[in-house]
Amino acid sequence: MTLQTWELLSYIVTVVALPFALGVFLFEQRKERENEEEAIWQQISDAYIDFLEVVLANPDLRLRSQAATPDLSDEQRERMWVIFDMLISLFERAYLLVYEDDMDAKKRRRWHSWEDYMREWSRREDFRARLPELLRGEDPGFAHYIRQLAAEEQQA
Predict the structure, then answer these.
(1) Distance (Å, whole) CA 53 – CA 47
(2) Which residues contact residue 121 at a Cβ distance below 8 angstroms, ignoring those fewer than 6 apart?
(3) pTM to 2 decimal places
(4) Could you read off the pLDDT of 32-59 as tens digits, one per residue?
């Protein structure tokens, strides 16, 4: 092989193969990032299902109704507050891991399911009443977001 052949081959690699390899690398990186986002979304969705199992295990608290549960004993009230603490923790985790100001359509669709859950729980009177205490020490962006949702749901 002559020097000219080697030079031609190096130009081909520089012009064709290097950009192609870079494109493949970037494509793989994007796919990996999407897979990580999907795994995170699945983990927090599973955590919400686990939370709903706790709700089902406490039917005396009537947590799926929008009205506050009247005449709770001290023990029942304590269980309800703990369950609300678990819920706020889960919502904050979802907010921190999923929410972005500028989301693409797929991320926005995923986030709206979490927003629906937050709105649903914010319709419950005693959850809304307890919200200031529940949000103490939580992420300020999340606290502002859920307070805004709760205010909207109270108005509706």
Answers:
(1) 10
(2) 87, 91, 127
(3) 0.82
(4) 988 998 899 899 999 999 999 999 999 9
